[in-house]
Design goal:
The structure is a single chain. The chain is mainly alpha-helical. Among the domains are: about 60 residues, no CATH class; about 180 residues, no CATH class. Helix content is about 45%, strand content about 10%. The chain is built from eleven helices and 16 strands. It has a two-stranded antiparallel sheet with strand order 1-2. A two-stranded antiparallel ribbon has the order 3-4. Keywords: Acyltransferase, Golgi apparatus, Lipoprotein, Membrane, Palmitate, Transferase, Transmembrane, Transmembrane helix.
């Protein structure tokens, strides 16, 4: 393949020059639109797939496909922020519409069970663009010291480093090589069976006296059962991954994998949050909050020098007197909206850790009406793993430790 050729989704050799030619799905859709006819079921998805397959850039060994979910933040965010800086009413309209559009897109992808890089791209590009505006519009005013720029830069670098750790393996359970192969025979374990329900709160229970030890809530014995077991004996059997999940593990329908101590699937990192990366996820949120609040404070202190940062956020006379100040103030409000959303996520996470409950367990407890609402409904106490504030945090800080030993009473 030359740099402008590629193999399309139908396995045929194609060229970038013909990317706008011979698109049967798009032609049919335009014909139906011109004749006021409705699209048949699945037509819009086929058009989207065809367009996504043809959006490519030249490369050495052939044209490389671009994920179209990366493009909207790169193009729309700078344009919308610059338009919002033209007038106060435009800023009010745009900054109100942006969260609504993001939530709508999240609902759309969540309903279709699709993975997307849109939110990760939006987050990373927002960080980069806000840092660029800070260096170009705020620092030249002379109110920000060199040491403050260094501190802000270090916070940004540390947050990105924590994000890279959070995107690593969350604790995926190994995929079986063959569906009919098992790691151990049932005849070797006559005293064990699977109990509980399929929500992952219950694992492998040992009949009689419980004398075994567990690591991170997972039984050390047989971790799988054959597919031929009766349904009553495989209540915690994952039919998709073909394995028995340990306690607190769950199946992510977006990743298609079972994860140890699954908390939730975070669209902002495009990965699950589980046993192995939960600490890095909390660290990323904490560093983001500190860095963002510090940057907002420095910017407002430069634009509105005679007011406190909190008062300047709501009342800053002269913020729209020149375009540079208006753009900086608009970016501050954009950062404040994002920071408020991330702060709420961090608050819920800290409360859940304090009660040793995951987001998945809280959602299932609400569905089954088995949990207690605490602190005005901010946290759901399931009562399964709560051992007190200090013990809960000690357990969280030791997640992923290979030497962690827990008593059998923690296995439900």
């Amino acid at each position: 393949l030359c740099c402008c050729e590629y193999v399309d989704r139908n396995g045929e050799r194609n060229h970038l020059v013909t990317c706008l030619c011979d698109c049967q799905e798009l032609d049919d859709g335009c014909d139906r639109w011109l004749t006021c006819k409705s699209l048949p079921p699945g037509a819009l998805e086929r058009i989207t797939d065809a367009v996504a397959d043809r959006v490519r850039v030249p490369w050495f060994a052939g044209a490389v496909k671009i994920n179209i979910s990366l493009v909207p933040p790169l193009l729309l965010l700078p344009v919308l922020l610059h338009v919002a800086a033209l007038h106060f009413l435009l800023a009010l309209l745009i900054l109100t519409s942006l969260p609504v559009l993001v939530l709508w897109y999240y609902y759309l992808t969540h309903r279709r069970k699709e993975r997307t890089l849109f939110f990760l791209s939006l987050g990373l590009f927002s960080l980069g663009y806000m840092y660029y505006v800070f260096l170009q519009e705020v620092v030249p005013r002379g109110s920000v010291e060199y040491s403050q720029v260094v501190i802000l830069t270090c916070g940004l670098v540390l947050m990105l480093a924590a994000l890279s750790q959070a995107k690593k393996d969350p604790g995926y359970l190994p995929i079986p090589i063959g569906k009919n192969k098992v790691s151990c025979h049932l005849m070797d374990l006559p005293s064990k069976k699977v109990m509980g329900n399929s929500n992952g709160l219950h694992g492998v229970a040992t009949l009689g006296a419980a004398s075994g030890r567990a690591v991170n809530g997972e039984d050390k014995g047989c971790s799988r059962l054959p597919a031929e077991e009766p349904e009553g004996m495989r209540k915690d059997w994952c039919t998709r991954c073909q394995l028995v999940r340990p306690a607190r593990a769950g199946h992510c329908r977006l990743c298609g994998r079972c994860v140890r101590r699954l908390d939730h699937h975070c669209v902002w990192i495009n990965s699950c949050v589980g046993e192995q990366n939960h600490q890095a996820f909390i660290l990323t949120l904490s560093l983001f909050m500190l860095t963002s609040v510090y940057g907002i404070t420095l910017t407002l202190g430069t634009i509105c020098r005679d007011r406190t940062p909190f008062m300047a956020l709501f009342y800053c006379p002269g913020a729209y007197s020149d375009y540079s100040s208006a753009l900086s103030f608009t970016c501050v409000w954009y950062c404040a909206i994002v920071t408020a959303g991330m702060g709420y996520i961090l608050l819920i996470q800290l409360l859940n850790i304090s009660y040793n409950v995951t987001e998945r367990e809280a959602r299932l407890a609400l569905r089954d009406n088995t949990g207690r609402r605490l602190l005005g409904g901010l946290v759901i106490d399931t009562g399964h793993y709560n051992r007190g504030f200090l013990c809960n945090w000690s357990h969280f800080l030791s997640l992923g430790s290979p030497a962690l030993q827990r008593s059998a009473e923690d296995i439900v």
